[in-house]
Design brief:
Length: about 200
């Protein structure tokens, strides 16, 4: 398998952490989705990373589809429960964590990739409000549990950890740890895992 991705994308990091936790081998192919000549476009019509090229049958996107495929590929470290209530709760965690990634990426692009006279600061503030509301939601849902879904690590923790790591990368000044001690505790534990350490985002992009 090949994974096309960048070193800053939180969605790519989510997939790479899943690959590492499941001990699946793959080739990591770096590509810049914003580049005109991105090779990615031949595999994903949306031109977005991550994109997984499967050995036998074409490519897969987006990160939610890819992680579901990967979890079913191997019985090692099951990260998504069988259909039922628990699975839906894991998916809800993933939805809010991905939503934080969406809002943070939108806010970052608005201010850092657009000329000053084209920036919409109201739009950026809407994205920052979504981040704050989601942090409060996740803090209260996590409570004092060791992981999002209780004792064991699952996809919910990986998605939340990747989203929080992206906030550190792009919005260090948010200081979300002070106001969200339970999330800070979870993030500290996750960031000790080799799967998280080996996928720390690079700041060069
Ligand atoms: N929902 C998608 C989001 C992927 C995404 O937005 N990736 C960004 C990088 S962080 C991208 O490739 N953007 C390029 C573009 O929008 O053209 C997923 O979960 O994979």
């Amino acid at each position: 398998m090949k994974l096309i991705g960048s070193l800053t994308s939180p969605y790519v990091r989510k997939v790479r952490i899943v690959l590492a936790e499941k001990k699946l081998d793959y080739e990591f192919v770096l590509d810049d989705p914003w580049a005109e000549a991105a090779q990615l476009k031949a595999h994903n019509p949306l031109g977005k990373v991550p994109c997984l090229i499967m050995d036998e049958s074409g490519s897969l996107f987006d990160s939610r589809v890819i992680v579901e495929y990967l979890d079913a590929l191997s019985p090692v470290s099951r990260l998504i429960p069988a259909p039922g209530r628990e699975r839906i709760e894991v998916k809800r965690w993933e939805a809010v964590a991905d939503g934080v990634m969406d809002a943070a990426a939108n806010a970052f692009i608005e201010v850092n990739k657009r000329a000053a006279h084209l920036q919409d600061l109201q739009y950026r503030q809407r994205q920052m409000d979504k981040i704050q509301a989601s942090l409060a939601y996740m803090e209260s849902l996590l409570g004092s549990q060791p992981h999002c879904m209780g004792v064991n690590l699952c996809l919910a923790d990986i998605a939340v950890g990747a989203a929080l790591g992206y906030l550190d990368l792009r919005f260090n000044e948010l200081d979300w740890r002070t106001s969200h001690p339970e999330l800070a505790r979870l993030a500290a534990k996750l960031e000790e895992r080799p799967s998280f350490i080996n996928t720390r985002p690079a700041t060069s992009q």
